[in-house]
């Protein structure tokens, strides 16, 4: 699993969480590697095996990385060894940037807000921690006219996320430019898509 916020003060960047579960007896060991080289030190926080109600155990380990190192396209792998395994199991985290689509629908989905609806869709990204935002001629847009969705996991393990901006008709026709922005740990800078009434007539 990859979490967007670090749990340790002073370490900025994503957090990789490795979880081994369902094993017995308790003596499992978790370790990390980066491009095949062992990773240790203060950025690794190892947990203690926890006994579950069915008699099996779970064990976790957390790796927190600087953002620049995470974005360097290195491969981070978690390894688990246990007496029931002939060789260690490994799991490698996949990092995929989002693609971005911006669509204009003529009918608003929200009662009381008359005008077109702009739908921004980020898709194909992993891990889940993407964020969508809106701007109008470069100024941030928020409030009740914005409805943000929740990231949805797809069958291939990637995620999609949507955000809806509903506008009064007069504001849409003012020729202002509306832009959707997506930020994600796989991107060095946000992706954007823009539209205006001059480009899209309803």
UniProtKB/TrEMBL annotation:
Gene3D superfamilies: Immunoglobulins (2.60.40.10). It comes from the Eukaryota. Residues 1-96, 98-196 form the Ig-like domain. InterPro entries: Ig-like_dom (IPR007110), Ig-like_dom_sf (IPR036179), Ig-like_fold (IPR013783), Ig/MHC_CS (IPR003006), Ig_C1-set (IPR003597), Immune_Resp_Modulators (IPR050380). SUPFAM superfamilies: Immunoglobulin (SSF48726). Keywords: Disulfide bond, Immunoglobulin domain. This is Ig-like domain-containing protein.
């Amino acid at each position: 699993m990859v979490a967007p916020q670090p749990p340790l003060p002073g370490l900025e960047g994503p957090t990789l969480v490795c979880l081994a579960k369902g094993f017995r007896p308790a003596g499992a060991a978790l370790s990390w590697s980066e491009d095949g080289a062992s990773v240790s030190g203060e950025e690794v926080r190892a947990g203690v095996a926890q006994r579950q109600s069915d008699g099996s155990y779970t064990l976790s380990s957390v790796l927190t990385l600087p953002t620049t190192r995470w974005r360097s396209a290195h491969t981070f792998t978690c390894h688990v060894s246990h007496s029931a395994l002939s060789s260690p199991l490994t799991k490698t985290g996949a990092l995929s940037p989002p693609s971005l689509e911006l669509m204009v629908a003529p009918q608003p989905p929200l009662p009381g807000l008359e005008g077109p609806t702009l739908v921004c869709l980020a898709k194909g990204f992993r891990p889940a921690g993407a964020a969508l935002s809106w701007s109008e001629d470069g100024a941030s847009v928020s409030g009740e006219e914005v409805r943000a969705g929740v990231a949805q996991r797809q069958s291939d393990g990637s995620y999609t996320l949507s955000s809806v901006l509903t506008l009064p008709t007069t504001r849409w026709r003012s020729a202002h430019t509306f832009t959707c922005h997506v930020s994600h740990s796989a991107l060095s800078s946000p992706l954007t898509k823009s539209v205006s009434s001059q480009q899209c007539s309803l």
